Q: What sequence folds into this?
């Protein structure tokens, strides 16, 4: 490979550029249309690096926890990366049954334990006493504050020889027959034999201009951070996710709490156009307001949610795929055109691992991991409407632990 150009400077593109360079690609450029890396969905990420079902996803998450710890260590600065674990507390009898079953299924893939009520309250001392029946516990889950992490990656990329071009938007590729030979940008053409589309919410529309199908649909998500608590929330508090309270999730952030949730339905206002998704700064505030109300209604379980006032909001456009799997690999119709997209709201968790696999593919033509489920082009033939319905179903499926 003579030159690789990565399009999109979110956490996924930044990790791809880093891994390509470290895998020995001499010329790597990272193009970002905004004036800073991570200015779009990455800046809204809640920073939970946790585990789920899936053998490949476990490999990716294990890789991420090691990667982020190493970045923090090498930075010689506290980026807020903490292995403080993640709890899924059970509130009702039915919830306990469902979460115990989930724990059993998940323990096939990663280290998951069931904690009794006393141990749960000991682990998460902000819980009101006597309210939870126990919890699924992921001891190896990690907090990664995405803004501090992307700032560190932005510092590191030029230092390892990646050319970072801010304010530079890709508009398509140059091709010779069925092979990529360059990228067209707002600053002119850049010759390249490898192009990586890591454009997040814009990956679908960017790929479509070059005849490549990427079945990744952006849906808006948001979260907020409270003011710091007079008695600061410990930065060792485990992350928590309340399945029985609309998947409200929270973790410590700067002495207060970062809080979000998963909607029960996806309103029109959370479905931007596939052709031209908006800047995340222009997303509507309704979802954040709903999360703030939901948080207050959870004060019976976590009293601080009733006490701490929201201070800042952030949102983004994670992209969902109809089958819930990422999109990773070379486009079948265009040699040299690679895609890393369809984050399914776990882009912070999986970016380093996806980038590692991408770099292997680009430099060796193969990878030891079975990524057949992530095949580019597998949703070709679905209409935009079918794609959007499939993506919404994936989004909402996170509520269904009752199986
Ligand atoms: C509220 C919320 C909570 C979340 N919580 C978590 C979590 O706890 N854990 C987790 O793992 N994930 C979480 N996520 C998801 C995570 O933030 C995303 O998966 C991740 O940030 C996606 O990164 P990205 O690089 O694909 O997208 P982005 O950060 O959007 O990056 C894509 C970049 O491409 C640029 N771009 C687009 N088109 C072009 C072009 N033509 N030329 C040049 N540049 C272009 C854009 O400007 C953008 O900066 C959350 C997301 C939100 C919104």
A:
């Amino acid at each position: 490979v003579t030159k690789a150009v990565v399009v999109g400077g979110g956490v996924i593109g930044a990790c791809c550029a880093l891994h390509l360079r470290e895998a020995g690609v001499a010329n790597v450029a990272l193009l970002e249309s905004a004036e800073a890396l991570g200015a779009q969905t990455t800046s809204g990420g809640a920073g939970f690096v946790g585990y789920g079902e899936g053998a490949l996803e476990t490999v990716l998450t294990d890789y991420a926890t090691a990667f982020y710890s190493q970045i923090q260590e090498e930075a010689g600065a506290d980026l807020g990366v903490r292995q403080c674990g993640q709890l899924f507390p059970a509130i009702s009898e039915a919830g306990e049954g469902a979460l115990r079953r989930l724990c059993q299924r998940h323990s096939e893939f990663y280290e998951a334990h069931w904690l009794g009520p006393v141990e749960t309250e000991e682990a998460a001392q902000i819980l009101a006493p006597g309210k939870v029946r126990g919890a699924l516990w992921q001891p190896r889950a990690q907090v990664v504050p995405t803004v501090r992490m992307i700032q560190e990656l932005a510092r590191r990329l030029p230092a390892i020889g990646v050319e970072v071009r801010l304010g530079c938007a890709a508009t398509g590729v140059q091709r010779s027959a069925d092979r990529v030979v360059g990228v067209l940008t707002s600053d002119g053409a850049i010759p390249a034999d490898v192009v990586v589309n890591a454009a997040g919410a814009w990956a679908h529309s960017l790929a479509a201009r070059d005849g490549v199908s990427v079945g990744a649909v952006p849906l808006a998500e948001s979260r907020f951070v409270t003011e710091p608590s007079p008695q600061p929330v410990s930065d060792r508090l485990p992350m928590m996710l309340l399945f029985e309270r609309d998947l409200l999730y929270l973790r410590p952030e700067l002495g207060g709490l970062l809080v979000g949730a998963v909607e029960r339905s996806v309103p029109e206002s959370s479905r931007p156009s596939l052709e031209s998704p908006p800047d995340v700064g222009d997303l509507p505030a309704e979802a954040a307001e709903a999360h703030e109300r939901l948080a207050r209604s959870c004060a019976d379980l976590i009293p601080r949610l009733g006490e701490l006032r929201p201070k800042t909001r952030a949102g983004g456009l994670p992209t969902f795929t109809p089958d819930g799997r990422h999109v990773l690999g070379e486009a079948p119709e265009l040699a040299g055109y690679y895609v890393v997209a369809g984050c399914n709201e776990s882009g912070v968790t999986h970016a380093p691992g996806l980038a590692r696999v991408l770099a292997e593919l680009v430099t060796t033509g193969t990878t030891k991991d079975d990524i057949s489920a992530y095949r580019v082009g597998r949703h070709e033939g679905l209409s935009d409407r079918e794609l959007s319905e499939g993506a919404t179903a994936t989004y909402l499926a996170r509520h269904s632990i009752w199986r």
Observations:
- The chain has a mean pLDDT of 96.
- The chain has eleven helices and 21 strands.
- The longest helix spans residues 55-75.
